[in-house]
Amino acid sequence: MKLIPCYWLAVLATLAGRAGEPAPRPPAFEYFGTCGASAGVFLDETHFVVANDEDCVLRVYRLGQAQPVAARDVSAFLQLDRHRSEVDLEAAARAGDLVWWLGSHSRTAAGHPAPNRHRLFATRLVPAAGAGGVPGLEPHGQPCTRLLDDLLAAPTLRDLPLAAAARRGPEEPGGLNLEGLAAAPDGRLWIGFRNPVPEGRALLVPLENPDAAWRGEPVRAGEPAHLDLGGLGVRDLLWAGGRCWVLAGPAVGGGNFRLFVWSGPGTPAREVPTRFPRRFRPEGLLGHPRRSPAEFFVLSDDGSLRIGDCACRDLPDPAQRRFRAAWVSAER
How big is the CA angle at 166 (ends 224 and 237), to the nearest 5 degrees? Predict the structure, then answer.
């Protein structure tokens, strides 16, 4: 029998120990201009656009560059009540050259009506002019303010407690809060509910005719899907590689975030073990046009992250507000 020198025994023992260790957490990069990054999409290979739950500005960033390279305020397009202008943008999805944006459709944290949050709207991609240019977005059609009414009237959703949910605060048990949006290959637009989570299963609803939204016509809801995400609600959705990736988190606060993959109606969701950076609050799941469909650029909503003596969203100098983003892989 051939003996293994003690040196190599030590090396093998070290490698065996490392094999049993959890994967390292991915590094995060800070981008400035807002704290509450809640939704975004890639516009090309090097630029991505981000919305937040603090204002109506769509900020364009270049990968690895901390300051935004362009910004578009869409508040005038959204026809908002100027006294309560918060839209609470929570989700985005790209379908060809259209980028869809979704407000939470929730009430305020105190449970008061917030009609400005009732917005589903589209923007159209403006490609960069020449090498090194910055792509942009232009409002498309008109903003949809009737989505919640159409959902409440949909025959396919009549057995769901949506009417009661719409009368509660977004983080009350059984309240209403929309946070996920994904454009499927068949042309449907899927909405993911953070809240409610009926019978402990996350709720996803497809819009069969999404273009009706920017035309000002009724939107038709299809058959809902109920996914077992361990009692969690939807924080974001992304259709990539022929599957829907579901970022899940608590419906009413907390920090237990998990990633699932779903192959569509009639199939269960499967959890994908994933590690996020420390103190990360993943809210946006972005797919890159060239990278693997199982590799994501994830945005963290850092509004409540402590920076010095106060939360990020309360920093007196807006230029110091920032959020983090990181590449996260679901491949194993």
Answer: 45
Question: What is the domain class of 33-329 according to CATH?
Answer: mainly beta
Q: What pLDDT, in 10s, does the model give residues 282-304?
A: 999 999 999 999 999 999 999 99
The torsion angles phi and psi of 207, rounded to 5 degrees, stand at: -95, 120
Sign of the CA dihedral with 174 first, then 178, 180, and 186 last: positive
pTM: 0.92
> Which value, in Å, is the radius of gyration of the alpha carbons in the chain?
21
| Bridging pattern class, strands 47-52 and 70-73 | unpaired
Torsional class of 285: left (φ above 0), alpha (ψ -120 to 50), beta (otherwise):
beta
Which pLDDT does position 54 carry in this prediction?
Answer: 84
Whether residue 210 is predicted with pLDDT greater than 50 in this model: the reply is yes
- For residues 15 and 56, give the distance between their C-alpha atoms in angstroms, rounded to a whole number: 50
Q: What 3 state SS string does the chain have? A: CCCCCHHHHHHHHHHHHHHCCCCCCCCCEEEECCCEEEEEEECCCCEEEEEECCCCEEEEEECCCCCCCEEEECCCCCCCCHHHCCCCEEEEEEECCEEEEEECCCCCCCCCCCHHHCCEEEEEEECCCCCCCCCEEEEEEEEECCHHHHHHHCHHHCCCCHHHHCCCCCCCCCCCEEEEEEECCCCCEEEEEEECCHHHCEEEEEECCCHHHHHCCCCCECCCEEECCCCCEEEEEEEECCEEEEEEECCCCCCCCEEEEECCCCCCEEEECCCCCCCCCEEEEEECCCCCCCEEEEEEECCCCEECCEEHHHCCCHHHCEEEEEEEECCC
